[in-house]
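Quick illustration, no need to memorize.
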Amino acid sequence: MQHLKFLFLFLAVTFGVQNSYAQPIRFKTSSVSYADKDAKGKWNEWSEFVDANVLITLDAKKNLITVNSSEVQSFKIKAYGEIVDNDEVNIVPFDCFDNKFSNCNILIITKKKENNRMQFYINYNEVKFVYNIYNVK
């Protein structure tokens, strides 16, 4: 029993220290595209990408994703999805709701076979957005 108490204390301290030093991850965008549904409920083709210089911040400590576009969008992370990592892609999913309490899914995708190109998806029921992104040091 004494060993279990020690193990629990050790894990609590270890994870607590790691969490306290977690830094937000910042991405810059280079372009954005969107797709919406037609009258029959089928997805239209993605729009042409247009230039977009936007800062995206992922703060896991606060469970918050912020897209600093002309109208700041905040997404509260409700759940962290299961990461998919294979030879072609790395997908990090988030189940979120925005600052208007609309549910959405956010994906950060790294396309390994495309020179590790990164994309940031915001998926709603009727519209979805994709940003081409890169890490900010």
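Residues 5 and 11 are 10 Å apart (CA to CA).
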